[in-house]
């Protein structure tokens, strides 16, 4: 799994990643850099210099002074079980693949490998101001991060990580080992069911008895515990929360609801899927332009033609519609507001005019579908997977809060001022 943090000091990040001051005693290997000034020894091997690298990052960050925290720091961690495969070349390949899939392209970065812990890991210092002076958005980054890490782990056959409670255990006590194994087994069972009524049968297949405590009056689930016998036949019983906090009754119900919601979300008609892809593609195009009249050229890269309805007297844009070729090869034209109310001409102009407003409200800037340019929209539909679209469609708490500000405007319902608003 990868952890992404943001900061303002390139020197500090590089000093930590490369241990250039030789104070932290890390086992560090320099792997690769892109677009960064680097000193070299007479034999051609890199000779990292903190000041030169930091100055190179800072010069590029100066292309966009509005970005006050241009440092992205990424830690990619691997499991000890995969150590035989973790050569420098292999870890570098994984790091580059990760950056590409996350949309961290056309910018500076430096990659170091650390081996001072049981888990070999990579540190990447990256410039959020790209080579053209544009800001690399961090919206929806956490959800993209999870999706990309899962994809790479599954594709490469790498070892999956456990929960923090499980992975931090280094005990040798047989009872503790049994407890952690039980937690793993129950967690695996939850992935296979959609109702808590199915849990006892599923865990029984793994030799675990599920005991659910129900309120006799209300019928509500009050608690859950799991019983398992050790090799000597002695029974051990743990509450779900004693195994892992994710296995409390409340959290198990939450997990099952999310499983069910995910299933329902994936059952989309071809028309619904097409409209969702169209919406995210348009939002992504909007995030790349600084004037509404630049939009036709941007959408054309993905096979979408933009049509404006203008006031004959003032020339102001009064309406917008989009035409494209669907998956069946038929031409379609849809009004922007019919796709999503944020895609009316007026709302598109508002999103483009205000930088912080647009970056907070344009879904496409967060989804980062990473589409190839100069392709038909029919090809775009073939490029986007249902899983990627679902990840791009799930809001975080901060996104929901910003959407409330967007719809209700400054000062309404106690929200902080300073954001332009629009009534629902």
- The side-by-side strand order for the widest beta sheet comes to 1-5-7-6-2
Specify the overall morphology.
Answer: flat
Number of helices: 18
Report the sheet-strand fraction. 15-25%
The end-to-end span amounts to 39 Å
Overall description:
This protein has 424 residues and is an alpha+beta fold. It has 18 helices and 13 strands. Strands 1-5-7-6-2 form a five-stranded antiparallel beta sheet, sandwiched between helices. The chain has a three-stranded antiparallel beta sheet with strand order 8-9-10. A three-stranded antiparallel beta sheet has the order 11-12-13. It is flat and about 85 Å long.
Highlighted features:
42% helix, five-stranded antiparallel sheet, 13 strands, alpha+beta, disordered C terminus, 424 residues, three-stranded antiparallel sheet, BirA Bifunctional Protein, domain 2, 3 domains
């Amino acid at each position: 799994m990868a952890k992404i943090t943001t900061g303002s000091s390139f020197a500090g990040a590089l000093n930590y990643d490369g241990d250039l001051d030789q104070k932290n005693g890390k086992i560090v290997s320099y792997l690769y850099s892109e677009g960064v000034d680097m000193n070299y020894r007479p034999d051609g091997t890199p000779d990292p210099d903190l000041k030169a690298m930091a100055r190179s990052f800072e010069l590029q960050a100066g292309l966009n002074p509005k970005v006050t925290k241009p440092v992205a720091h990424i830690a990619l961690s691997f499991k000890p079980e995969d150590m035989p495969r973790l050569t420098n070349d292999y870890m570098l390949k994984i790091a580059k693949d990760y950056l590409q899939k996350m949309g961290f392209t056309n910018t500076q970065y430096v990659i170091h490998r650390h081996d001072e812990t049981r888990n070999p890991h990579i540190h990447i210092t990256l410039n959020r101001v790209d080579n053209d002076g544009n800001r690399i958005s961090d919206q929806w980054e956490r959800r993209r991060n999870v999706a990309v890490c899962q994809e790479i782990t599954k594709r490469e056959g790498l070892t999956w990580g456990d929960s923090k409670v499980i992975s931090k255990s280094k005990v040798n006590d047989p009872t503790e080992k049994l407890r952690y194994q039980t937690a793993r087994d129950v967690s695996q069972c939850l992935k296979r069911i959609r109702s808590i009524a199915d849990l006892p049968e599923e865990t029984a297949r793994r030799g675990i008895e599920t005991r659910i405590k129900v309120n006799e009056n209300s019928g509500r689930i009050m608690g859950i515990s799991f019983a398992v016998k050790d090799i000597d036949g002695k029974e051990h019983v743990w509450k779900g929360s004693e195994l892992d906090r994710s296995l409390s009754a409340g959290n198990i119900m939450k997990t099952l609801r999310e499983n069910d919601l995910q299933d329902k979300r994936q059952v989309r008609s071809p028309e619904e899927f097409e409209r969702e892809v169209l919406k995210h593609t348009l939002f992504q195009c909007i995030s790349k332009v600084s004037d509404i009249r630049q939009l036709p050229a941007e959408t054309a890269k993905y096979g979408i033609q933009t049509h404006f309805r203008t006031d004959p007297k003032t020339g102001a844009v009064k309406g917008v519609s989009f035409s494209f070729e669907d998956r069946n090869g038929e031409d379609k034209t849809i009004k922007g507001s019919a796709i999503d109310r944020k895609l009316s001409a007026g709302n598109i102009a508002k999103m483009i005019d205000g930088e912080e407003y647009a970056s907070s409200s344009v879904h496409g800037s967060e989804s980062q579908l990473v589409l190839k340019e100069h392709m038909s929209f029919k090809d775009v539909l073939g490029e986007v997977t249902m899983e990627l679209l679902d990840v791009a469609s799930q809001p975080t708490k901060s996104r929901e809060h910003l959407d409330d500000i967007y719809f209700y405007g400054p000062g309404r319902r106690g929200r902080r001022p300073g954001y332009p608003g629009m009534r629902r």
